[in-house]
Structures are given as structure tokens and as C-alpha cells.
Amino acid sequence: METITYDILIIGAGPIGLACGLEAQRAGLSYLIVEKGTLVNSLYNYPINMTFFSTSEKLEIGGIPFTSVHPKPNRMEAMEYYRRVADAKDLNVHLFEEVQQMDPQGDLYGINTNKGKYKARHVIIAVGFYGIPNMLHIPGEELPKVRHYYFDPHYYYRQKVVVVGANNSSADAALETWRKGADVTMVVRQQELGSIKYWTKPDLENRIKEGSIKCYFSSNLAEIREREVDVQTPEGKVTLENDFVLAMTGYQPDFGFLQKVGIYLSPDEKRYPQYDPETMETNLPNVYLAGVICGGMDTHVWFIENSREHAVKIVQHIVREQNVTQA
């Protein structure tokens, strides 16, 4: 089969990847979006009852209105919105197609996936950070009872559940599983709860205060076994009966892929990728970053509402370059 050449190949079909496709389409450029999972794969992996902190207009892309029944939309509404955008604009998206290799080929880039081969004049990397969990690095973490993703609380009915973490995901998992009949214990490394949605935090604080949800602060999960766990507390080690561990310890971008294709990362623990904030172009000519990937390990810097502009910057830069070349 003949290899198709696109003006832009976009890696990632999250909201920002879709926004890049919309801008390319508006500019009359040929493009393809490839995604290793389903459409807006990160949102799909969010907890089933998740409510966004942002209002619906801040989640809009391409100037297409997002209407929601509630002041803050939920996961189901967001997925419905992005599906409708993809259909209404007939976006060129290939799902469940993973990029395996990307190499410069003269003025083009050759991209090999698990389903095909393509060439592109420009590449936009708009992958998220939800695919690789931050590990605990403790004995027993490999057991099937340990989950780094929390989806539906019903599964944990009448189970003894340990929730690790102190932020939004941990708070949601603890409250929702408790309400569905789980015996919940939280293990929090800090001295207090972290950054939690303002409508959730008082609820969790009250449940901890009354003892409905147990919580060990300034503590760490030390070891996981089939039927119990060890928690290292300021007072010493505590052993708890346990059925499931929900390790809500955050996630990180696929730094391995960035390094594999040749994008420079800062040598410190933040691992910031190198790019021009005015154009979003990386150290690789005609390769751009968009969305949360730009923040390295600071995964709470870029959101949908403040990185939608990346799509506009990138496509405007590509169009300017093409106009100069053609002049």
C-alpha cells in the first residue's frame, strides 16, 4: 500500500489532540489523529461518577458549544460532547492505533504504528499523562488486588479497602466506595489532606472526623500481602486486614516515547520537555507539543482550558512557515 503523506500527524485523541485536528481542518491542512486507545482515552479512564472542576465552556474546543445539565459537567457529558465534536466535524481519527516508531526522513517524518505507516511534514504530540501510574515501589504492589485506576465503587461493596493518596482521586475513591458499603482506610503521606474540590473536601473531613473513614496521616503503605497490608505510621507499623488497595498516587507522561523520538528533557526530577512557548515547537524541527505533556512531571499545570490555545499557536506557526516557503 502507498504511504500517505499528511501536512500534520497528531499523536493523541484527547481534547487537545482533537483541538489540533479542528485547527488543521480549519486551515485547510491535511491531517491524521492517531490514538492508542479510545477517543478521549484519559477521560474514559476517569472514575465513572467524576465531576469536572471546570465549567462546560472551559472544556469547549474549536468554538463548538458544550452544554451541560449541571454547572460543572461530569465524565459522561464530556465524553458525549467530544464524540459529537468528532462526528460533527468528521475528524480524521484512527483509534486503537499506537505509534511505535517515528524517524526523520529528509523534510518529512516517517511514522510507524501497529496498523500502518505514514509520512508527515509536521508532527504534534498531544499525549496525556494518564497511561503510566506513579508506582509505590513496595513489596506486593504487583498483586492483582492493587489498582492504580479507580472506576466503579460498587465493585468494592463489603470489602476492606485501603486508599493511598490525599488529592481528588483519593477523596473520590474513599467517599464513593464507603457510600457503597466498603470499609475504607486512607493512607496519607502528608500531615493533612491535599488539594481537593471544594465541594468534596468538607465531606471527607467530616467522614474522617466521625470515624466512618479511617485515616493515617504522615504515613506510608509499607507492604502489601494477599489478605493484609502494613502501614508505617509515626507511632510505628500497623497491620490491617485488607481486600483491595487503590493506589491513587498520580500518573506521569510517557517520557520514554519523548526520549525515543529525540525530544530533550530537563535533567532534574521535573523532566520538562524542551519547546518554544510561542510556537510549541520542540528541539526537533516541525515536531510540536500540546497539552499536559508540556508540563513534564508538573501534571497539574496544563488543563484543557489553558492548553486549548496550543492548537491555535501550532497551526498558525505551520501556516506561516508554509506561506514563507511558498513565497
Q: CATH topology of the largest domain, which one?
A: FAD/NAD(P)-binding domain
Q: Main beta sheet: strand number and arrangement?
A: 7 strands, mixed
CATH architecture of the largest domain: 3-Layer(bba) Sandwich
- SSE series: EHEHHEEEEEEEHEHEEEEEEHEH
Radius of gyration: 22 Å
Q: Give the CA-CA distance, first to last residue.
A: 34 Å
Content of β-strand: 15-25%
Fourth-tier CATH superfamily name of the largest domain: FAD/NAD(P)-binding domain
- Count of helical regions: 7
Task: Describe what this molecule looks like in 3D.
- GO terms for molecular function: oxidoreductase activity.
- Keywords: Flavoprotein, Oxidoreductase.
- InterPro entries: Bdr, FAD/NAD-bd_sf, Ferredoxin-NADP_redctase_2.
- This is Thioredoxin reductase (NADPH).
- It holds the Pfam family Pyr_redox_3.
- The chain folds into two domains: 4-132 and 251-326, FAD/NAD(P)-binding domain, CATH 3.50.50.60; 135-247, FAD/NAD(P)-binding domain, CATH 3.50.50.
- It has helices spanning 15-26, 41-44, 75-88, 168-179, 201-210, 255-261, 304-326; strands at residues 4-11, 31-34, 93-94, 99-105, 108-113, 117-125, 132-133, 146-147, 160-164, 183-187, 214-216, 220-224, 228-233, 236-241, 244-247, 251-252, 287-289.
- The two termini are 34 Å apart.
- The protein is elongated.
- Strands 1, 2, 3, 4, 5, 6 and 17 form a seven-stranded mixed β-sheet that branches.
- It has seven helices and 17 strands.
- By secondary structure, the chain is an alpha/beta fold.
- The protein is 25% helix and 24% strand.
- Strand 10 (183-187), helix 5 (201-210) and strand 11 (214-216) form a beta-alpha-beta unit.
- Helix 1 packs parallel to helix 7 (304-326).
